[in-house]
Design brief:
By secondary structure, this protein is mostly helical. The protein is 53% helix and 8% strand. The protein contains 3 helices and 2 strands; from the N terminus they run ααβαβ. Helix 1 packs parallel to helix 3.
């Protein structure tokens, strides 16, 4: 079978990539320059639509922590 399964390491790699993609685009700096403040983001629930069991609550917390620690965005709870 060519099916592959996701493990915690795979999820971490994808999550790290998505976090970097969210906090590094030039439009964040552009927004702050135009508005005089960092953009505010809301992280909703991350839904797993695959057939694999993935605990997405861990990823939600990781996103929230990364945004707070990045200093380029403000985070508000949903």
């Amino acid at each position: 079978s060519s099916e592959s399964t996701w493990n915690a390491s795979d999820v971490r790699i994808v999550c790290d990539y998505l976090i970097e993609e969210c906090i590094s685009p030039p439009r964040i700096a552009k927004f702050e320059g135009q508005q005089g403040r960092a953009p505010v983001v809301i992280i909703d629930s991350i839904r797993n639509q695959s057939s694999e069991h993935i605990d997405t609550s861990i990823d939600e917390k990781k996103f929230q922590t990364a945004i707070i620690n990045s200093g380029v965005m403000e985070f508000v709870s949903y």
